[in-house]
Design goal:
Oligomer: single chain
Number of strands: 6
Number of helices: 0
Largest sheet: 4 strands, antiparallel
Shape: flat
Strand order of the largest sheet: 3-4-5-6
Order of helices and strands: EEEEEE
Distance between the termini: 24 Å
Helix content: under 10%
Radius of gyration: 14 Å
Number of domains: 1
Length: 76
């Protein structure tokens, strides 16, 4: 059974694409423009037993910056 779930509710597609991740794989999303991209990593921290996230700006085709925007524990 999946532990994480991702979807793209608004896009040019007629259907909503989804993805699943497990505690040992996590899940990563990547949304981009020609100016750069935003990446969201969601993962399970075995030490704390909690689900955590990191939101960061990343380069896309050489454009953009590398910077962590936010990180924390889901639900807190």
């Amino acid at each position: 059974m999946s532990h994480f779930y991702a979807s793209i509710p608004y896009s040019a597609r007629k259907t909503v694409p989804t993805a699943r991740g497990h505690k040992n794989t996590g899940i990563k999303t990547h949304a981009a423009s020609w100016a750069g991209a935003i990446q969201v990593d969601v993962y399970h921290n075995d030490e704390t037993g909690k689900d955590q996230f990191i939101v960061r700006q990343v380069k896309h085709h050489g454009a953009g910056i590398e910077a962590i925007l936010s990180e924390g524990t889901i639900g807190e």
